[in-house]
């Protein structure tokens, strides 16, 4: 009789001088049949009552562990294990039960692989655990419920994919089941994604600050260009007016604070122009009103700045009478290095 078998699949290894008169049975039953099982054999078992431990009847005999295809069936309602020998073997698993199954080694602390209900996968022993080589879940799953404790896909004939529940932001989702038509996603103050209200057509989007979803700005929109395309168009732009109050003998004018400044000259004042736009050009207008005392003086200075006036004058001729109003204009093309000044409107006493 045959005494030798292959170490992995248990095929018979006849040797010269053995099996006289019985070699046909040994070849048929312990080689040919077992080879067919390993290539195309199917093992089916219900996992309704518990785990499925693959049978491992001795070498030379048919068993579940040698089969190529494993089909768990039944209605366990909870995940079950398929326990296979810890040895080099590949399986096609077609999970036809109503819960996930875990294919893992029968001995040792192997984590195994989870096969969702309805999933079909090719699994193989890596030397220490089972791993998935390929899966049908990307092609055959039409419904995935993210709200359950496990991944529970089910198949349908429509080919559409439906997501039930929400997918957390940490897992690459939005944690939303729906959004606002025409809105945008943004993080709230608590770091949760939310949908803004619908953005107005042909307007620009402006941030609302930390924790506030963006909204449509009323400052800019788009308008038809002269030839083609679009361009940004000011819609409701307004200058920022800053009231400086009484000048005294010295007062600061911070350019970044606004575009229009007003002040009352109630002393021989030095006005220090500070904080211009660091790069590029900027300008501001100053409405300067004299108090009841005529003849006061005013001068403008700035850190490292040169003030230039028409005709190379050292200063501008202003109205010095009591209660008169002059409107000054200053422009810098170089970030505050040089200011060009003028008084386009003088002596606006009413």
Descriptive keywords:
350 residues, mainly beta, 6-stranded mixed beta sheet, 5-stranded mixed beta sheet, 2 helices, 6% helix, 37% strand, rod-shaped
SSE order and pairing:
Blueprint: H1 23-40, E1 42-46, E2 52-53, E3 69-73, E4 80-84, E5 90-94, E6 101-105, E7 113-115, E8 120-125, E9 130-135, H2 137-140, E10 143-145, E11 162-164, E12 185-187, E13 193-195, E14 203-206, E15 215-224, E16 230-234, E17 241-246, E18 250-254, E19 260-265, E20 269-274, E21 282-290, E22 298-302, E23 306-308, E24 325-332, E25 338-345
Account of the 3D structure:
Among the domains are: 42-140, no CATH class; 197-234, no CATH class; 241-345. The protein is 6% helix and 37% strand. It is built from 2 helices and 25 strands. The chain has a 6-stranded mixed β-sheet, with no helix packed on it. The longest helix has 18 residues, at 23-40.
